[in-house]
Write a structure and sequence with these properties.
mainly alpha; 7 strands; about 10% strand; membrane; EC 2.5.1.145
C-alpha cells in the first residue's frame, strides 16, 4: 500500500493574518496563548497561597522577557553561533526581530529561532532576579511556575507544528505527517508527540498540586518539570531530524546534550532537595 495514503498531508499557512504589512503568525499567537495561560495558572496559586497580590504583578514581565531573551540567545549561541557572531549586523539580529538584507535595508522577520533550553535558563535567571526584588523564597516561586510550564511548552510545540519546523525522521507509521513545505516524505510529527506529552504532564501537575501540595517537599514540582520534560526531549530527539548539520557527526545531538544537565538537576530536586522541610510549606 502507498504510504502516502496513510499519511496526513500538512501544509497550513503559517500566517494567521497580515496587519499593515506585518505578518501575524500562528507561531507568535500560540506562544502568547501559552504565556497567558501560565499567567492565570500562577495567579491562581498566588491567591491560593494568600501571597500579596503586589508581589505577583511584576512576575509576568520577568517571566516573559526571561523566556524570550533566553530562548533567542540559546538558539543563536547553541545552534548557529557561526552566523550571529561573525559580524556586527548579525550580532544585532540576535536581539531584534529583523534580518539585514545583502542589498542594504532590512526586513521584519520576527524571532526566527528560539531554543527551549535557552528559554529555561533565561526563566531560571529571571526568577532569581524577581525573588531578589520581592524577597520571596526562590524554590516556592519556581515550583508555582513549574505547575504552569508544561501547558506553555505544549503551546510552543503546537506553534512549531504550525510552522512545519523541527520535523521528525521519515517513517511508515499510519499517523505520519507529510510536511509539504519541506518534502513529500511521511515523517514522525515530533512536535505533536512533545505537545501531547507536555499536556499530560500539565494534568499530572494539577492533580498533584490539588491533592498533595502540602505533602510534597519544596522543589518537587520544579524537579518533576525538568526531569519529565527533558527526559522526554532526550528520547524524542531519536525520531527527529537534527536542526543543524554539525549535529550529524555527534553521538547525541545538541538538544540531547543540553537536556542531560536539566535531567540531573530535576532528579536532585525531586528526590533530595529540602525533603525534611515539608512541614514548613
Amino acid at each position: 500500500m502507498n504510504t502516502l495514503l496513510l499519511s496526513i498531508n500538512w501544509n497550513p499557512n503559517p500566517e494567521f493574518f497580515n496587519l499593515f504589512g506585518i505578518s501575524i503568525r500562528y507561531y507568535g499567537i500560540l506562544w502568547a496563548i501559552g504565556i497567558f495561560c501560565a499567567y492565570f495558572i500562577v495567579r491562581y496559586q498566588y491567591r491560593d497561597k494568600k501571597i500579596d497580590e503586589k508581589k505577583f504583578d511584576p512576575l509576568f514581565f520577568y517571566c516573559f522577557f526571561g523566556i524570550l531573551i533566553g530562548a533567542r540567545l540559546g538558539h543563536c549561541l547553541f545552534y548557529d553561533p557561526s552566523h550571529y557572531l561573525t559580524s556586527g549586523k548579525r550580532f544585532i539580529e540576535m536581539f531584534i526581530p529583523i534580518r539585514f538584507l545583502p542589498s542594504g535595508g532590512w526586513k521584519f522577520t520576527g524571532y526566527e529561532g528560539l531554543a527551549s533550553h535557552g528559554g529555561t535558563l533565561g526563566l531560571i535567571i529571571a526568577l532569581w532576579l524577581y525573588c531578589r526584588k520581592t524577597k520571596m523564597h526562590y524554590m516556592e516561586v519556581v515550583d508555582m511556575i513549574a505547575v504552569a510550564t508544561p501547558l506553555t511548552a505544549c503551546c510552543i510545540r503546537l506553534a512549531n507544528l504550525m510552522n512545519s519546523e523541527i520535523i521528525g525522521k521519515p517513517t511508515d507509521m499510519p499517523w505520519a505527517f507529510v510536511f509539504e513545505r519541506v518534502d513529500m516524505l511521511p515523517r514522525h510529527p515530533g512536535q505533536l508527540y512533545e505537545a501531547i506529552a507536555y499536556l499530560i504532564l500539565f494534568f499530572i501537575m494539577i492533580f498533584l498540586y490539588k491533592k498533595y501540595n502540602r505533602k510534597l517537599h519544596r522543589g518537587f514540582f520544579f524537579g518533576l518539570c525538568l526531569a519529565y520534560i527533558f527526559t522526554f526531549r532526550f528520547f524524542i530527539e531519536f525520531v527527529k531530524e537534527n536542526q543543524e548539520s554539525f549535529e550529524d557527526d555527534m553521538m547525541f545531538n545538541m538538544g540531547q546534550w543540553l537536556s542531560i544537565p536539566f535531567i540531573i538537576v530535576g532528579i536532585y530536586f525531586m528526590f533530595f532537595y529540602d525533603r525534611k522541610k515539608v512541614s514548613e510549606r
